[in-house]
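Hi all, posting the design record for the shared folder.

TITLE: backbone redesign
STEP: 1 of 1
STRUCTURE INPUT:
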């Protein structure tokens, strides 16, 4: 028997973050935990590590927000049951992020017979190649290490995906070189699924796979065999299969075949954020807002950004089957910040996002919604503008509870109007805003809960926030149909401008 050897260099060729020195021959694995765990399936591995994580109260699926009491428990149940499972939901519901985080429940590294395509377990080889290497070298069989990051394989399903892509194909040249028949396992060029052996294989948009590819999948799942170019082959892979799909497609009337649907153990439904607060937390986490100019986004602006997505999801002109992705408020917030950044760079003044920046960021909305026939007739930009206006009105209604805007409304009903040139710094608005009785007082009430700046420039930041809040009050009153607004007059009495649109408010 050979003397066990270890090396730090070769064990880090796959994952240089592994700190321990790992054996590089089969002899070095003898008597270790990997020999005791020989033959343990990837589902058992996931289950064991999940049990440990639950007992230690470790966080699961970090960065996935709003699912703690719904989706996460259902995924945990599927893993504890050792099920292949599918996540059903509309676009932008973190399905792929959840699937990719399954690798955190795998061991940091597992040994396999070096050079084997199917990453054979040294103590329970699957392929003929692995068995031959083991018989030839014995305890000197070279061992390589597979990090958890390399045990996840993902495929986006498309109609042109073939059985060869997923399972494999006969390679005549390989057969001739090895001197084997075409039906021999060694003559197969393996596809993505076999190469995911001892790991997690994910397919996004499962119903987009052709029927014959779906048949090949459930043969592997249920029977551990497959036919490649008419040659039957045993392929008892050790792999967890996980999928994602749109619920509209995942039906017998859609594009999924019933036998495959029947072989998926758990069906987990995802959803959009249940509350604006959950949505804001997700958007804040994902949006790129850390700019060199240090743009500040008041909370009422951030809330209005998120409310746009909520209003779009209930708008009858927006296609409910396509959904409104969480990427909409993320992109919208980034554009709002960019609008404030551009203004700060060109006209000076503090970089603070305004409520009117939402209208300048409409391209982030129009590209994220798909319209029904009625919406197409009106036009995507017009629909997006109305959704933004309605969102601002809802946020104003929540923020202004108990506040009386009568003095401001009366000012405009007396025939006064107010224009706020968007190309100017907010400081230039001070005289116009101060001329409206009660407006700045309302603005101060709206900003009462905002975090206050400290240190040098704090007073300037507070004045800027007050002016931006005053614009929010005006836009909120316009959205609630209490005052009007037009390109010619700016803010005016409710009979003018766009105020004749009839909108129902919650």
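Okay, here is what came back for every position:
SEQUENCE:
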């Amino acid at each position: 028997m050979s003397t066990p050897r270890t090396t730090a260099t070769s064990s880090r060729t796959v994952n240089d973050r592994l700190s321990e020195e790992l054996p590089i021959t089969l002899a070095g694995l003898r008597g270790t935990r990997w020999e005791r765990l020989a033959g343990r399936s990837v589902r058992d591995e996931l289950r064991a590590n999940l049990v440990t994580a639950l007992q230690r109260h470790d966080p699961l699926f970090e960065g996935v927000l709003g699912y703690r009491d719904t989706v996460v428990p259902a995924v945990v149940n599927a893993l504890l049951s050792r099920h292949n499972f599918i996540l059903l939901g509309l676009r932008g519901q973190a399905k792929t992020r959840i699937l990719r985080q399954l690798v955190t429940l795998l061991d940091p590294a597992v040994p396999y017979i070096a050079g084997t395509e199917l990453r054979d377990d040294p103590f329970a080889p699957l392929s003929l190649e692995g068995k031959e290497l083991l018989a030839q070298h014995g305890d000197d069989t070279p061992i390589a290490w597979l990090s958890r990051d390399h045990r996840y394989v993902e495929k986006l399903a498309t109609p042109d995906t073939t059985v060869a892509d997923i399972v494999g194909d006969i390679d005549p040249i390989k057969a001739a070189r090895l001197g084997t028949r075409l039906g021999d396992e060694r003559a197969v060029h393996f596809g993505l699924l076999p190469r995911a052996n001892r790991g997690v294989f994910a397919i996004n948009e499962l119903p987009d796979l052709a029927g014959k590819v779906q048949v090949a999948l459930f043969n592997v799942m249920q029977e551990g065999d497959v036919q490649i170019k008419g040659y039957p082959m045993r392929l008892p892979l050790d792999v967890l299969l996980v999928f994602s799909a749109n619920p509209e497609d995942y039906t017998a009337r859609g594009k999924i075949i019933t036998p495959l649907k029947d072989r998926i153990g758990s069906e987990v439904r995802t959803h959009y954020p249940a509350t604006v607060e959950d949505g804001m937390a997700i958007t804040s986490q994902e949006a790129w807002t850390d700019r060199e100019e240090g743009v500040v986004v008041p909370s009422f602006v951030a809330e209005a950004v998120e409310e746009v997505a909520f209003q779009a999801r209930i708008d009858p002109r927006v296609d409910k089957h396509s959904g409104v992705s969480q990427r909409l408020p993320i992109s919208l917030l980034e554009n709002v910040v960019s609008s404030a950044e551009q203004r700060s760079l060109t006209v000076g003044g503090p970089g603070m996002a305004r409520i009117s920046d939402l209208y300048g960021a409409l391209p982030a909305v129009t590209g994220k919604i798909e319209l029904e026939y009625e919406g197409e007739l009106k036009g995507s930009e017009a629909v997006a503008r109305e959704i933004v206006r309605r969102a601002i009105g809802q946020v104003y209604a929540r923020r202004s509870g108990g506040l009386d805007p009568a003095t401001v409304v009366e000012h405009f009903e007396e025939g006064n109007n107010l224009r706020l040139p968007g190309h100017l710094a907010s400081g230039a608005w001070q005289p116009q805003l101060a001329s409206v009785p009660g407006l700045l007082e309302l603005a101060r009430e709206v900003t009462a809960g905002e975090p206050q700046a400290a240190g040098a420039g704090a007073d300037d930041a507070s004045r800027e926030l007050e002016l931006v809040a005053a614009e929010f009050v005006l836009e909120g009153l316009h959205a609630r149909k209490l005052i009007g607004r037009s390109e010619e007059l700016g803010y005016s009495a409710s009979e003018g401008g766009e105020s004749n649109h009839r909108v129902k408010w919650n």
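COMMENT: Residues 6-269 form a domain with the Rossmann fold fold (CATH 3.40.50.300).
Let me know if anyone wants the other runs.
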